[in-house]
């Protein structure tokens, strides 16, 4: 496409590097900004630069934070459970359920030999150290994706924690709420039968 | 939603002000940037600020440009036709068809009394001046949306140009290419019959 201006072209080029945004959406966003007050674009630019330059990761749980000590220790959380997730959005999703009040550990990825990501590229050693050095930890909950890579990562972590006294659990795999039995794939159905739980009349 | 960091929250706040981007997409974009090299975010911020601060509008046709004299006059264009459009994306869309080689005039909006936009808020006076002062102009093509506001704007422009010798035409309204007659609404069908054209075996 031929752009009316070099400045527009550069902006479109940079915006369209973001995931899920093509050239056409990028152009729409750039032209939208031109119609808004200049302060809005300035604020956006500053917020992005600020985020990228000043963000910290908590030294303990590796969650994104404003300081190197995140709120994971200071809040009134259950310090006997650590939930292991792949990335920060997972932390937010689990927190939003309101069903979990323990600590977190963000791996920053999952073991994926195909992509050249081995156990050393994710924060597994740091998890093992954390579990071993903190006697308060009684359980590690693996909340990983139900994919080949997620399962590989889960197996590896479980193996590394075998010698410790902590209980290693995983979030349940089964039919999603609202899902019809008829349309559920065999593997999910088989897993949901083998890991069946006692029926509760409370929920 | 509770964010893990004030910086993330600010970035999400600013990104989600863009059209079509909600808080969830904004969060995904912000976290994506954290995984990319810092230069990418810096480039994006600079391109946006640069665009917003340094963009110019051509004094004649009001197209977005890098200087106040756009390429509208220098290129080998047909200077006897002016195509009137609402906004810059329309210029790009029409140029991309390869069917039009004349000049453009960007109104910067359309008359919409409901939104408080009157004839004085769009560049209609400037179009009339342009037509009157340039004897080379023989035709004005109205390429406006086929909506109430687009039609109102078209009528107003046609009225303003009534005393000039230029021909005022409008792009054809009818069944879109690929459209089925059966599913076309009555008004479009009626318009396509009343404005029927001679059948050509050439296209």
The CATH topology of the largest domain in chain A, please?
Dna Topoisomerase Vi A Subunit, Chain: A, domain 2
General shape of chain A: globular
Number of helices of chain A: 7
Structural class of chain A: alpha/beta
The CATH C-level class name of the largest domain in chain A? Alpha Beta
Q: How many DSSP E strands of chain A?
A: 6
Q: Helical residue percent of chain A?
A: 40-55%
Strand portion of chain A: 5-15%
Q: Which consecutive residue ranges of chain A, at least 5 long each, have pLDDT under 50? A: none
CA radius of gyration of chain A is 22 Å
Sheet with the most strands: spatial strand order of chain A:
4-3-5-6
Count of folded domains of chain A: 2
* Helix/strand order of chain A, N-terminal first: HHHEEEHEHEHEH
Distance between the termini of chain A: 56 Å
What does this structure look like?
With 203 residues, chain A is of the alpha/beta class. The N and C termini of chain A lie far apart (56 Å). The first copy, chain A, has 7 helices and 6 strands, in the order αααβββαβαβαβα. Chain A folds into 2 domains: 6-54, Helicase, Ruva Protein, domain 3, CATH 1.10.8; 64-173 and 188-194, Dna Topoisomerase Vi A Subunit, Chain: A, domain 2, CATH 3.40.1360.10. Helices cover 40% and strands 12% of the residues of chain A. The model of chain A has no long low-confidence stretch (mean pLDDT 88). The first copy, chain A, is globular and about 65 Å long. Chains A and B meet through α1, α2, α3, β2 and α4 of A and α1, α2, α3, β2 and α4 of B.
